[in-house]
UniProtKB/TrEMBL annotation:
Segments forming domain Thiaminase-2/PQQC: 13-216
Active site: 207 (proton donor)
Matches recorded under NCBIfam families: salvage_TenA (TIGR04306)
Function: Catalyzes an amino-pyrimidine hydrolysis reaction at the C5' of the pyrimidine moiety of thiamine compounds, a reaction that is part of a thiamine salvage pathway. Thus, catalyzes the conversion of 4-amino-5-aminomethyl-2-methylpyrimidine to 4-amino-5-hydroxymethyl-2-methylpyrimidine (HMP).
Taxonomic source organism: Paenibacillus rigui
Similarity comment: family membership: Belongs to the TenA family.
Pfam family, one: TENA_THI-4
Name of the protein in its database record: Aminopyrimidine aminohydrolase
EC number(s) reported in the record: 3.5.99.2
Amino acid sequence: MKFTDHVYEKYKTDWRQNHQHPFIIEMGQGTLGVEKFRFYMVQDYLYLIDYAKLFALGAVKAQDLKTMGKFAALLDATMNEEMALHRKYAEQFGISETELEQAEPSPITLAYTHYMLHAAQNGPLSHLVAALLPCMWSYWDIGKELNLIPGAADHELYGEWIRMYSSEEFGALARWCMELMDELAEGVSEQEWARLEDIFLNTTRFEYMFWDMAYHQSMWPSNN
Ligand SMILES: Cc1ncc(CN)c(N)n1
């Protein structure tokens, strides 16, 4: 069985929890509080800076030029397309680029990005891809699901987010990541397969915690 089919079946409950988080439900209904979305955008911008570094590490760890080129393209797409969406939203909220970059990361943002970079730096390419997979796949899955809600993709604030993550371009990147994961997991030992599952489950759970952090605008206890 392919790794992606296996983890989808086994961790369906954790996976679906992300789709059912109030942040996602309310974004689809267009009722999400603007301050929650604003908080998310700032934290996600900080997240994306480290996420882009993950792609740079992917290029370093790639075993062939095709994979290396793909990671370089993903790095470019993150910095110039995905982060551009955030910069646009920030402008709407009156936040400058400098303010965005200098914002304080929340404990969850720090924990999530540090976990991903740790897995990427200390293991083979398969560990990096396992850490990355839920980020790409789950956003695409959520984007597609929200896009099915009549009118959601036309919402004046959340529509652009939904259109971007449900797009064919984003889907192609997510599919590439899934295929690469399946290739890298093929034929690995039982112990290594379990390690990959572990990393996949951890970042799937971090995805949930990120939505929850944004919904409750959680910072360090002393800041709240
Ligand atoms: C937390 C998070 N996870 C995933 C993505 C999709 N690249 C994102 N923008 N932010």
